[in-house]
Structure prediction request, 183 residues.
Amino acid sequence: MTTSLFALTSEATLLAARIDDTAERLFSEDPADVAAATEALEQLITTEASNRAALAAKADAWCWVVDQLRAKADAQREHAKRLAALAEQAEHRAQVMQDQLIRALGHVDPAATKWELPAHKITSRKSAAVEIDPDLLPADLPEQYQRVKTTVTADRTALAAALKAGTIIDGTHLVERRSWKIA
Prediction:
């Protein structure tokens, strides 16, 4: 039966504690106790080395599984991109065909705004939109046609520097995180 990663890490913690306790006995005044502690340490160190090797192998196997899951996620992301591109192409073809249909029907009845067909109904609605020359800057428009937006955001870089320097700023605190990467 294989030992789990969690059992191996628990065993490593217990072995470290037992090694520490046994090492304390090396400073005993009783030579028999020192000899027994030395022998016990030898056994514990051998067990710890074996556990460390098993733990490394198990952790490496976990890394392999993580790599496989990430590779699967990457493949699925790529597949989703391909599907999105195919959907976009299909939508474009449908739009081109719809435009050709409307143009053809428009030749028959140029004033029509809807058509009732046996299985479908084609309707239209009118809308208006402002198009602005891409070379025209908003500031070049008359003031009454300009909209000014102002946004305020926190300067996290300045806040971090101030907090690291010991400044107390209500509502903020410095949080240290560690990120891990499997290579």
Observations:
- The helical segments are 5-24, 31-108, 156-164.
- The mean pLDDT is 94.
- The beta strands are 114-116, 121-123.
